[in-house]
Amino acid sequence: MRSGERSADALRPFSVEYGVQPHADGSVLIRMGNTHVLCGVTVEDRVPPFLKDKGQGWITAEYGMLPCATHSRGRREAVSGLSGRTHEIQRLIGRSLRMMVDLSLLGEHTLRVDCDVLNADGGTRCASITGGALAVKMALARMVERGRLPALPPLLPVAAISAGVVAGQPVLDLDYAEDSSAEVDANFVMSGDGRWIEVQSTAEGGPFHPQLFTAMAELAARGTGQLFGLWETRG
């Protein structure tokens, strides 16, 4: 039995709280079970050097875990330096969030998305993408309110969820206990129109059959479909 007596295709309880960082241009606290991630967006009136004078914007992300987010204290990466895992997650978040808007409609602005894990119980990168997208949506609306954009550009909703194979069964939205014992671990990023943005899937013990991948993808599509309901909430 899964924790909380969840069925194989059930998400953990999830919620978002907007405006938790008043100094940010957009901010969201997203909760997926016991995984809690604070996502804040800062709008900068400049772009990276490779985009200078090209008339388009940029979205980038930084990710980190607070020392007590896990069962044993993790060392701050400000002291130890960024790990390869953190670099990889930051790039994944940035790539995913850049899919939600035509960057040529942002002017020469950079949206810097900070994703800080307050509590980790599996799926932190997926929660960061889902919450980060909602925070970007909020920041863009504020840019229009403040005259930094002439109009809100069309937005493509983005959400992410994990899936895996645990004890031979495909399951959705793995918590830490499931993730640490999974035979297959996967992360799926999807757009609101049903297209895949990125898929990461790894066999932990041995190769797995295509049918299991298809089952995980179907679970993920259902899960992200529920998360897209968050786009109807007001930020």
Automatic annotation (TrEMBL):
Signal peptide: none annotated. Residues 11-139, 157-222 form the Exoribonuclease phosphorolytic domain. Its EC number is 2.7.7.56. Phosphate binds at residues 85, 123-125. GO terms for molecular function: 3'-5'-RNA exonuclease activity; tRNA binding; tRNA nucleotidyltransferase activity. It catalyses: tRNA(n+1) + phosphate = tRNA(n) + a ribonucleoside 5'-diphosphate. Keywords: Nucleotidyltransferase, RNA-binding, rRNA processing, Transferase, tRNA processing, tRNA-binding. GO terms for biological process: rRNA 3'-end processing; rRNA catabolic process; tRNA processing. SUPFAM superfamilies: Ribonuclease PH domain 2-like (SSF55666), Ribosomal protein S5 domain 2-like (SSF54211). Belongs to the RNase PH family. Phosphorolytic 3'-5' exoribonuclease that plays an important role in tRNA 3'-end maturation. Removes nucleotide residues following the 3'-CCA terminus of tRNAs; can also add nucleotides to the ends of RNA molecules by using nucleoside diphosphates as substrates, but this may not be physiologically important. Probably plays a role in initiation of 16S rRNA degradation (leading to ribosome degradation) during starvation. Homohexameric ring arranged as a trimer of dimers. This is Ribonuclease PH. It comes from Desulfobulbus propionicus (strain ATCC 33891 / DSM 2032 / VKM B-1956 / 1pr3).
